Amino acid sequence: MRQKLEALDLIEYYKSFESFLARPKELVLQGDTKVHLRYINALETLSFAPPKEVKNLQSQLALLKKFGYLKLDEIFEFVKIIRYFLYLKSLKCEGILGEWFNAIQIPEQILPIAKSFLENGDLKSGIYLELDSINASLERLKREIAEQLSRTLNQNKLTPYLVDRQIHFINDEECLLLKAGFHHVLKGQILDRSSSGFFYVFPQNIANLKDKYTALKNQKESHLFEICREISSVFSKHLLFLNFINKEFDRFDSYQARLYFAKAKDLEFLAPKPNTTEIILDSFKHPALKNPKSISLQFKGQVLMITGVNAGGKTMLLKSILSVVFLSKYLIPLPINAAKSSVGNFKHLDFIFEDPQNSKNDISTFGGRMLEFSHILKQSDGIIGVDEIELGTDSDEAASLFKILLENLMQKNNKIIITTHHKRLAALMAGNPKVQLLAALFDEEAQMPTFSFLDGTIGKSYAFETALRYGIPKSLIQSAKTLYGEDKEKLNALIENASRLEMQLSQEIATTKEKNHTLEQRIQHLKDKEIALKERFDKLQSSLESTYQDAIKAAKMAIKEQSTSDKHRAMNTANTLLNKAKAIKQDSTSKPKDSMIFTQGMRVKYRNMRGIILSCQKQSAVVELESGMKIKAHFSELKASTNIPNLPTTKINIQAPQSASPMLDLHGMRAEEALEKLDEFISNSLIAGFDEVLIYHGIGTGRLSVVVRDFLKSHPKVLGFQDAPPKAGGFGAKIVKL
């Protein structure tokens, strides 16, 4: 783990995060990342004190398993954990935190132990009476020893022999610093000599007191051992609980450290999304850089090839992408706009950064690279980064070799990011629709890299310009350019243009295939409709013939009837059958209602307005109207439209929603949920005719405020916005003019 942190330049960032932990631990959070993030978000709403430093207790738990005895300070480490959970339970939390803390039931035998310690780890008085008596005797003897030393220091006959009036400690024994000849006035034991030749003397008159003090200390240690043995016996009986609460403490510590780290550094959480490999970054800044330029990119393909100018930020971009994947995997907050970013979930993360040449192991640069690739080729469903993939061998041979290696990794569902100066390799890979090109740009006027990137093209290395910038004489550069020749430069330009044209052609082919697929679907729909109409026609024709035959039979029967009333009854029956036949005939000749198929991007008419379908569901579609508003309408309310869209000056009259309100409360919502509610609220407010609305987003960590502000800035129908007055929410609300 540390090796990856160092390779990604994250070691200092991790140390900063580690300082928020009560004790060091692994970065891995076992279980579902979304569940962990729910607990962290719940903790964000809770006001609590972080835990104090606690030692690792794995060896102590192993000792208890063998029925061993803990020392008093080791017992106190367990007490600190138990006391902290008692504190958390006292906060009376609700929701998932309340369920978690309430599920931790502390055994009755352990509660008195937790209450028997002072904050400094000493035992409270009044619980162990014999220990209290020993402590009292020790304090009394300490006072007697101090008084005896003071009397000795104040003896007039000793004054000529005193070097100073301090009490010195040699091997934890109190002594005086005296000059030679002191033995005529004071009996004592010489413990040591100073560098100046003076004597550290332990007076004989306090020796008896010291013996008593030592005996009492030994008695205290013996009594403390009995207390520790008694507590250890209780702990051994509840070993399962101690194991459990030790793990739960690490889990809580992992949550609170991430939360307080995010608050202290103004960071955001970015949890990896399952069932996707897309990487979308918005405003990420690598923490190792000072005043960095933020990175925003969309990596939706399978291979990202970063080319372009030397020292233009290619390696740092590679490390930045991998850093986001690494930090999100372990749910470490990072400097990014999380609302507009997303990262897929990868089984493993591998990278090759350094030159693997090693003289001790007799391995070359290229040989080392091949050894590293041999290990990576066994991986699948991961993300892999390779810096300067062409390092150490002939470019033409390497291009063909690395193309095959990259395709092999792609077949194993790996996502790959590489930096390269191989125009040949880039040209070979550019035709693959799963390969995305990114070029580091160079400002030719300023003769400096811009540290920005252009999507969809192969970049130049600008080796001559870079060499000049780093002090190589201009005359040597000019000679190198002459030797390089114009033909080689033209060849490079042709390779770049060919790659660009190949990519454009691939995009056009993909678009054409998509259009053909849509056309085939419509043709199949018309064929199905034709068959259905024919079946309906045949059914109605058969029913019509049958009804006519019944009517004729009824008319013939009426002629044969003798009585007038029977004749009238039979004629009425025949007439009824004829009317039924006419209705069937009319139904068969009438044009059935067309069951229109609506698709994304189709122009439609909604009431007296026109728009474009953004997305379709089973029976409804989201339509963006010409006015810029978005509505959700049932298919029955839509009609196909082929008209050219009108200018934005078209007047629209829409009935205002009955439930429309000029206020919206976003408290407690996630960023994605808040944006969806805010979008719907603005649309309803425009339809209702509101020219000013109030949006509550709260203060909190400020993330929701940033999301709301960015959305309002980008909305075409928002004229302006400002913080609400203090009585209306202050900094936690926005007044928006529409």
Q: What brief labels describe this structure?
A:
single chain; 738 residues; alpha+beta; Rossmann fold; 6 domains; six-stranded mixed sheet; five-stranded antiparallel sheet
Molecular structure report:
The protein is of the alpha+beta class. It folds into 6 domains: 21-126 and 225-265, no CATH class; 146-213, no CATH class; 279-484, Rossmann fold; 531-589; 596-654, Roll (SH3 type barrels), CATH 2.30.30.30; 659-738, Ribosomal Protein S8, Chain: A, domain 1 (2-Layer Sandwich). 48% of the residues lie in helices and 15% in strands. The protein contains 20 helices and 22 strands. Strands 9-10-11-7-12-13 form a 6-stranded mixed beta sheet, sandwiched between helices. A 5-stranded antiparallel beta sheet has the order 17-16-15-14-18. A 4-stranded antiparallel beta sheet has the order 1-2-4-3, covered by helices on one side. Residues 357-362 and 644-654 have low confidence and may be disordered.
